[in-house]
């Protein structure tokens, strides 16, 4: 579930730094306690259709089975699982939203099947192992929020060896893009610096204090904020100017936390637009509902957050801008090194290192600088 | 210092609930680590002029003296104290902003006088008691952020019996106001509810889940957000439609934390505008720099955040809207019961209970409902 604000937990797999629960709540969980936020996600038709169809077109996975919904929120996936024939659904939710989920379950007459448990997934004890783990855990660019850790933990502890995961697979994509945001953000940055210089002069004149020593850290802070922080956007497909490439493939039944602590890829993408401006890169994801090898889906469903005219989602894409943008031509080949890790101070946020070289059709190699980005 | 976001600490006086430091940082302190935020406060000319004049027109308080700056931020007050002749200034700052303050002090050649200490005020140990405590601790409506607790703690531990506080006094004000915000917020609320009802219908139609049981909590959440949360605004003086009244007076040299845990007042205000709409109430504050009885200021300075055409501050006023607004006439007398306490989950936020009765000039008494507000 994509959430604007993320201001970390123990799992069975080797974990990142152990996160204080109170701090994790203040930084992250608290946003999920609001019905307004749940409604935003429940109003995302692409998201809702994908999970709805995945469940109801694969009832064989649910009929008579035990199901675990990790991070049930309002309870929607647990309710669908029950309506699709589950014998028992454990709906785990760390925030007070669990109380609303409980009411919703009762109002839909499913309290004999769905048990809502207000607890963090890492701490919960279930009376049995389950046949299905269903969860909508995806954050911006898939891994922001690091909620997938909780799903992996749940799988390790509570999924039967023969069990299936909903979704079963996930992929991260990257593509070169054009966007007016690159001009807007540079302009915002320049305005902030102009304002700063005026402020420094005034503070010296009126108040006798020389602030120039702070210019460098102020500029760095504004560069990080305006130029180096990835942006949420729902891009139009015609803003994608080269072939999208897969930078990570995840089999949800086997992936470990270690596998996702550092997402690295070396890929290349050919520019497809004739004469264009490479303004940066967009990252997005898709997930698939394929069941398992032993127990496949009857109807495979895909949920994609790729740029789309009509089927945008609340996740949008994450846009990493290049300053300055560069002119690019059809056939130019971009060679990209991508590396994403968790932020030290907050495991739910990410840092990205992105290196790009352009091999032009003429043969000339244009090296571009290595760029650091922050997914906040 | 007014700060948009606040997401508490042990003092010598009987404290509120002890606050986890990590949580307090995630909820509150972190916003003060940004230079952009410091610049906002440093660009507030009314704020800057008041403190600047208070210090430099009362050098006798600083010359050869030991000074403590509580929450030094960028270090500005500490620097002025040193420039006004202090022998030694202890500039205490809980966030990494202390590093910038240290650089600023050095760049202004005051490192022999100003010692920046990166520590929370409640934990710091100073080598001596001080003659002056200077601090800009005021939040929206004076007490939001509860930073004054740290100043009281500092006073109890580190101020000499003969010492002075900058500022020395503070007052909270309330006044009846008119504002188009009342219509805007009601409209926002109604839009949110209309949207919700459409959402409930669609979720039933498309997804077979009856969300009606959540309508009541959703409405309550939106009422709290749109109608019951006080708003930041810089009001024009002609929006004040009745006599402003003082609801709290504080002598900074004697006030205790207990005195400010619950701010209560029963006051009355006469409507001064001819035929107007009582849309709610505005709260603001002023502080004064008067020195102490034994050691008064030579030049008393006032810093006010009252509605002003030309001298608005970054604090603005806090606006508490009445839904629905009521017609009011010159001479109508408003009898108000005001009570403000700290929010249970976060001692840096406030809750307000406000009861209002109108005695019209005809003699008729109009009781108005008791209203609960949240200062977030």
UniProtKB/TrEMBL annotation, chains A, B:
<dbReference type="Pfam" id="PF22528">
    <property type="entry name" value="PRMT_C"/>
</dbReference>
<dbReference type="GO" id="GO:0042054">
    <property type="term" value="F:histone methyltransferase activity"/>
</dbReference>
<protein>
    <recommendedName>
        <fullName>Protein arginine N-methyltransferase PRMT10</fullName>
        <ecNumber>2.1.1.319</ecNumber>
    </recommendedName>
</protein>
<dbReference type="GO" id="GO:0005634">
    <property type="term" value="C:nucleus"/>
</dbReference>
<dbReference type="InterPro" id="IPR025799">
    <property type="entry name" value="Arg_MeTrfase"/>
</dbReference>
<feature type="domain" description="Protein arginine N-methyltransferase">
    <location>
        <begin position="187"/>
        <end position="358"/>
    </location>
</feature>
<keyword id="KW-0949">S-adenosyl-L-methionine</keyword>
<dbReference type="GO" id="GO:0035242">
    <property type="term" value="F:protein-arginine omega-N asymmetric methyltransferase activity"/>
</dbReference>
<dbReference type="Pfam" id="PF06325">
    <property type="entry name" value="PrmA"/>
</dbReference>
<keyword id="KW-0808">Transferase</keyword>
<dbReference type="InterPro" id="IPR055135">
    <property type="entry name" value="PRMT_dom"/>
</dbReference>
<dbReference type="GO" id="GO:0032259">
    <property type="term" value="P:methylation"/>
</dbReference>
<keyword id="KW-0489">Methyltransferase</keyword>
<dbReference type="InterPro" id="IPR029063">
    <property type="entry name" value="SAM-dependent_MTases_sf"/>
</dbReference>
<comment type="subunit">
    <text>Ring-like homodimer.</text>
</comment>
